Amino acid sequence: MKDESAKIPQATAKRLPLYYRYLRNLYTLGKQRVSSAELSEAVKVDSATIRRDFSYFGALGKKGYGYNVKYLLSFFSKTLNQDEMTNVALIGVGNLGTALLNYNFSKNNSARIVMAFDNDESKVGKRVGNVPIYSMNDLKERLRQEDVTVVILTVPAIAAQTVTDELADTNVKGILNFTPARLNVPPNVRVHHIDLAVELQALIYFLQHYSNDAENS
Ligand code: ATP
Known about the structure:
Blueprint: H1 2-6, H2 10-28, E1 33-34, H3 36-43, H4 47-55, E2 61-62, E3 66-68, H5 69-80, E4 86-91, H6 95-103, E5 111-118, E6 127-128, E7 131-135, H7 139-145, E8 150-153, H8 157-165, E9 174-177, E10 190-193, H9 196-209
Parallel strand pairs: 4-5, 4-8, 5-7, 8-9, 9-10
Antiparallel strand pairs: 1-3, 2-3, 6-7
Helix pairs in contact: 2-5, 3-4
């Protein structure tokens, strides 16, 4: 792997995350192939450059067919995440937390939930989806030990800020917030907010009000 990527010019390597991100979106949407013209439009890189970039990885595209999204994606993920694995912790092993632990991003080989925390002592010491559940009393120490940099928050909204504050003085740089609470964090911490109830409501609203042209909204 190392030898293979060593041959890729730096300028090409810099564009890989861009391609990768777009391809992941396509893959999530269920698209199986993409033309260099489509890619070019989306990532704002001219299609000749894209074809040249991709040629470094072997003949991945076929004329009139385009590129196989799944194949490209697996190629890029190997190239980009050669030895990088992000250790993730989940806090709040309720219904949603349990579902995420069982899911554990098994199709993604660059991030993994390695530990979970809960303040309910009856849950502490158990495993869900083979992930150990620890006490909140051990939070800082455990996060530091395993160099956890990302936390998934699935506690009740009312506990979200208190728990977030407890992440100070750890290596956590990113929080995936599944609670409806808006979090105050230091400037070096990034929060991504996923409110499933709001998303569902928004979808239903669109279906009710824009049923004929909802597809591309
Ligand atoms: P359940 O029915 O298992 O309680 P739930 O998703 O309905 O699931 P919530 O009340 O949303 O439960 O709480 C989610 C989880 O967060 C629970 O396991 C709860 O014990 C845990 N929790 C609540 N407050 C805290 C806190 N301050 N720190 C850590 N975990 C917490």
